[in-house]
Amino acid sequence: MMPSIREQVMDLQLRYAHAIDEDALEQWPGFFTEACRYRVIPRENHARGLPACLIDCTGQAMLKDRVASLRSANIYNIHFDRHLMSPPLVEAGSEPHTATARTQFLVLQSDQSGVSKLFATGVYLDVIELGTGSPRFRERTVVLDTYGVPELLATPL
């Protein structure tokens, strides 16, 4: 039996979060189409239609570069992420073989000393290509509830 569109979307989102939470960042770009867009934007800018984002990547190659720089060039606090997400609100996309999803999330971070704290809250606004293969994000807009995050935004949300 073919999984429903909602089940496919939930599976994609859970695999995405699991890859980040398990520090399998090299898998992260594979959750996106080649010609994708990944952005992290504060709620205020998103609501006003302002383009300023904290992160704005276009294309899977930019996502791969981001992972490569995280692994070899960037210096950031060593931490462990834990994603918690609501069930997605899934609707048919505006194009054939696409769906849109709206999913609330929060990300907790634990440092090496064992301190866990709330890192980010917001909503994922996704456009997902369904097609014949595995579903992939065409667009993932991460709308943060606040303008800032308590630490450096290094790993993907």
Structure notes:
This protein has helices spanning 5-21, 43-48, 60-72; strands spanning 32-42, 55-58, 79-85, 89-92, 98-111, 116-129, 136-144. The protein has 157 residues and is α+β, with helices and mostly antiparallel strands. The chain has a single domain (5-144), classed as Nuclear Transport Factor 2, Chain: A. Strand 4 (89-92) and strand 5 form a beta hairpin. The longest helix has 17 residues, at 5-21. The protein is globular, with a radius of gyration of 15 Å. This is 3-phenylpropionate/cinnamic acid dioxygenase small subunit. One of its GO terms (molecular function) is dioxygenase activity. Keywords: Dioxygenase, Oxidoreductase.
Kindly list the characteristics that best describe this protein.
157 residues, alpha+beta, Nuclear Transport Factor 2, Chain: A, 7-stranded mixed sheet, 7 strands, globular
Please summarize what this structure is.
InterPro entries: NTF2-like_dom_sf, SnoaL-like. The protein is of the alpha+beta class and 157 residues long.
- The CATH class is Alpha Beta
- Our measurement of the CA-to-CA distance between the termini, rounded to an integer number of angstroms, reads 32 Å
Q: Give the count of helical stretches.
A: 3
Return the structural class: alpha+beta
Topology:
Blueprint: H1 5-21, E1 32-42, H2 43-48, E2 55-58, H3 60-72, E3 79-85, E4 89-92, E5 98-111, E6 116-129, E7 136-144
Parallel strand pairs: 1-7
Antiparallel strand pairs: 1-2, 3-5, 4-5, 5-6, 6-7
